[in-house]
């Protein structure tokens, strides 16, 4: 079995260049639900938002002002909109649906905004740094990952070093403002009741030549550790409530002890060249196949040793033995079908299938353990961190009729083609 390495060296090879070259894109692109086998898929609602309506707006002034209305939609497996919220537009927004039917989302200007089922704002929080992830804890508090400049005393500890990327040389050093990664737990009154700062615990001078800019770690996601067999067996590192972090820019995951604030576990993986710009690691919940393992979305950007540049993997690993347990990948020419250079997520489902969000393309799909696709939905504008929502998750959903689950069988792509106009007109 493959094993995680305790640490990996990070760098950039010229082989990574094709990542930034545009793949030919079809002018005709399927949207909506393109594959669905209800007897093999796990049925649910999906919480979906477009990747960046503001950023994609043709008018620069509108983009800068962030005034384009945006929405977050709850869809069924056939792509029908069940419910929607009009929210503050914000690039890279993240939304979480609560069991009471409220929606918590990252808004503009460092705002966290909570909407009720009808779209009314019922709670806001401002003042914490640029928020990159958000979780609602069991006690009702919000756990946030924010990026803010490091204090001067830590900035001064950054050693001047030269970095050479394919786009040119650059210095990483004490004169360049470094962004930290900060965790905050905020209660209903908006008070910070717990906080953690990476500069107090991690090596300030461990960085990637691929990303020498001030975003030192880029902690893009975190997840509380759920109840698990490791802790039940006495391994304190995996105490429920401890926090699993993903430091994208140095290809490393960490577990933070919630009480002591110390790093109690760190790891990466070496599957096909190792972790590269990953997102969304989380421990699989009890009661689901693979429970206790960590599963992550490995984007494949800024690759170091990979055979396939621009290849995304879903990797499931044992956090105690460091064995790689399961991988989803595509083969051959189909590699270009599964690649999200930024963002992306995955979720192990109760029936053992895995939900995958290829955010940059807007392609959401569900695979069985044998890697076969049993559901696929395409949102042409891309998506931002969609999530699986059980049919009975909120009182409002329980009051609705369960949606029909209608099979969708795609055409055989190897046989389907468009004839030249002259031949079509003749028919």
Mean pLDDT value: 82
- Counting structural domains, the number is 2
Helix content range: under 10%
Category by helix and strand content = mainly beta
Q: Indicate the radius of gyration in whole angstroms.
A: 22 Å
Work out the strand percent.
25-35%
Tell me what the structure shows.
The chain is mostly beta strands and 427 residues long. The protein contains five helices and 27 strands. It has helices at residues 60-65, 152-155, 229-232, 395-398, 421-426, and strands at residues 32-36, 45-49, 70-75, 81-87, 95-97, 103-106, 112-115, 121-125, 130-136, 142-147, 161-165, 168-172, 182-186, 192-197, 219-224, 243-247, 252-256, 263-267, 279-283, 294-298, 313-317, 324-328, 345-348, 354-358, 363-367, 373-378, 387-389. A five-stranded antiparallel beta sheet has the order 1-26-25-24-23, with no helix packed on it. The chain is globular and about 75 Å long. 40% of the residues are buried. Mean pLDDT is 82; it is low at 1-25 and 53-60.
What's the arrangement of secondary structure elements?
Layout: E1 32-36, E2 45-49, H1 60-65, E3 70-75, E4 81-87, E5 95-97, E6 103-106, E7 112-115, E8 121-125, E9 130-136, E10 142-147, H2 152-155, E11 161-165, E12 168-172, E13 182-186, E14 192-197, E15 219-224, H3 229-232, E16 243-247, E17 252-256, E18 263-267, E19 279-283, E20 294-298, E21 313-317, E22 324-328, E23 345-348, E24 354-358, E25 363-367, E26 373-378, E27 387-389, H4 395-398, H5 421-426
Antiparallel strand pairs: 1-26, 2-3, 2-27, 3-4, 5-6, 6-7, 7-8, 9-10, 10-13, 11-12, 13-14, 15-16, 16-17, 17-18, 19-20, 20-21, 21-22, 23-24, 24-25, 25-26
